[in-house]
Amino acid sequence: METSSIAQEYYKIRDLWLAAEQKTNWKLAVWVAQYADVEMIDKFMQIEQSPVGESNDIFFRFETEYKGDRPLFEEQLWNEFLSWFTPHSQKDKDIHRALWENKFITEPFVPDESLAPNAINLFGELERLRASIKDQNEQFCFCLYFPLAVQTKMNIAQWFQQVVEHLPDNLRLVSMDLVEERRIQLQGKKDNESLYHYLYPKLKMAEAIKNEMYKASDNYNSVDPDARFRKQVIVVMDSTTQKTQNRTDIEVKRLLDITKEIGTVSSKIAGLLVAAQAYFSLQKVKKSEEYTDKALEESSKAMEKDDATGYPVWKSCMLLKAALLFGNKDKNGALKIYEELSEKASKRQDAYYVMEANRLISHIYYEKNELAKAFESILFSLAAGAYLEIDVRRQSTFLHAAFMCLYLGEKIKTAAEVNEIKLQLADWLGDDWEILLAQAGVDSASLKTNPSILDKQLSKFK
């Protein structure tokens, strides 16, 4: 029986890091990760940046994207470093205040802004900050973490190779690479010791996540139909990954039989939606359409009766219906679906779905080369998204809408109007909005709506 858990996989990462930390010779550590493991490793690094981290070292995360221009990159890193010492309205984002208020440093640290913005001076100022920390009883380093997102287009290994020998003794660099497409494979020694350390985590994240889902489904309770329903949803979606001897038809039938046994409107609608999504994943369009239409019909009836379960499923069905229409080259049909979704979401004050519907409307108008309508729709999307909490805006498709607004603005608006857009984005997302967009990986290629993008959009309902 497979017993992997998310906690076990996390501890594997932690133990691997704590062992690496004890090695004193390396200056750059690289996590060589499978695609499925990237998020867990990145979460580990985030935890190590926080007070609950278990490492002796102190971690700092840089978000500046490397674009191949060393002087520009180092200037942007320098500016990002300076921003840490600018008072921040959100206390949890003010690194300097946290260090000072928690009495980690002997006196407030003031960066020397007269220095040239390059790597050597950045490392020197970080070393000066390190020296100001009160407790020097135990050996510790500053670890500068460069996540996978900062090397999306250009290979940051070039920069690592240029600066690694200039790092002070108590500074280290950390980054991530992908097993499937290795980019950071450096060799080099200093004082006869290797400068690079590679960490190869052997994780079972897919298995661990599945086990956690089964736990949440109470899979030990074989009598309770609700528990069996939750478990069967997982079985159905898991079946869609089977390339041979696919069992989706059988598992969907079992799921719908359980919904009949439960007998509630909500379970019936949810079962139909899961079936629709399962066949969508298999690209069986006709079957997906069949179940989508049934789910829409039932959820619409529930909405008419003011049943609370109707609207949440209905809006998911609408996204799926629009994706199917778009996949069949029916852009106008998809447009009508998104417009209806926007209208009903607006009446229910569902800001997130108003944002999403209008973002997707804008994509379609963009593909139809109706740029003025696309721009108008993306403004509506952002206006709706502005009602969300800033943390949601900074971690959602609001970032894609922001990029699209800027992209379209630069095509059809004046320079002054584009500048107004930038000022508004700073207000909605924070002064680091450009770094956020770069980290999210949004670019002009993401403006083209395609089935894979729509599939990602629907994945959160699976």
Automatic annotation (TrEMBL):
This is Tetratricopeptide repeat protein. InterPro entries: TPR-like_helical_dom_sf. SUPFAM superfamilies: TPR-like. It comes from Chryseobacterium pennae.
